[in-house]
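ok trying again, last paste got cut off:
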Amino acid sequence: MKKLRKKPFLGIRKKMILCCILSTIITIVLSDLMVYWIYREDITKKEFFYMEDGNQILSDNIDNLISTIEEKLVTELEYCSVFSYQNDLSNLYVADVERSLKRLATLMKMRGTNVKSIYILDQYSCSYYYDTTEELQLENFKEKTVYQEIRDNYKTMFPRQGSTLWRSFPDRPDEIYLIKHYIHSETTDYKGIVCLTFDKDYFHTLLGDHDFSSIIYDENDCLLYCSEELRHSLHSESESVREQYLISSTSVGKRGWTLEALVNKSTILARTKSLAGILLIVELVVLIGVILMITYLLRGMLGNILALDKSFRDINAGKPVEHIVPRTRDETSYLCYQFNTMYGELTQSVEKMAQDSTLRERAEYNALLAQM
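nice, full thing came through this time. structure:
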């Protein structure tokens, strides 16, 4: 028959202490998970509502700012008479057109609109270009995708006469282009296409600083603007990356644009670190308190049982047994009283048996002497 492996001895005090500590730890862990889940859901909802409100306000501001820029452009185009050379082509000088473009850029800058460069394609398919840094020429501008887009589609790219488009192209991700189909305000004659180049940092200035990042898509759902911190980590096609962000979307006026506000979920959850630190300190204090309380309670509860265990061991070893004084008044105290009574009766029986045996031996001895 196969022998059962002998289990190691583990005292009842250790068992009860381990059981209470494990129960406390499990309760703390479950409470932490519950508190973390509730807090995470609450802070996520609040952050989303805040993003929605902020994004809507930002959308209205962007619509107003963009409309202001477009109105400034029309006003300054007429004031600078950029297309006035078309009235007398016999006296056309490229330098005069470039000076009018320079004047336009200066006036736009004085009105708070920093233009990087200006390109025009007039009704006669003639091109003129001015760069505010005076480092680039028309030939450099022709290398850009925006130039090819204007040259190839200027007749069909605008939904109506006099409309304005905002575009961004992958070959120049740091630039945004305002493309205007310009008609004279009095004669309503078509004059040409005007393209203003803006740096995206200027667009960031228009948006201002917020607790969330922003992405703007044009009416064709093409990327128009993306916050600096998202340019290298987020792409509209990458849904797996977008899932890492809390996203709120809204439209920008009647332009058909979409404005998205994004906050990384890890940033939101990072705010729980302070709560986690506080909970950890409180839980350590509670755990220490529970251990001390359990130790104190078990000292009384197990005192009677341990005293009984010691008494039985002393009896087995033949040592004298002390009278047990119960430490607590519970079921174990009854056992102590019964043990004292039983041990007292047992002691008396043993003494009586020893006394009877002595008397019997003495009687036998006396009888034996009498026979002799």
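cool. The beta strands are 117-122, 127-131, 164-167, 175-183, 190-199, 213-217, 223-226, 245-252, 257-264. The CA atoms of residues 162 and 181 lie 5 Å apart.
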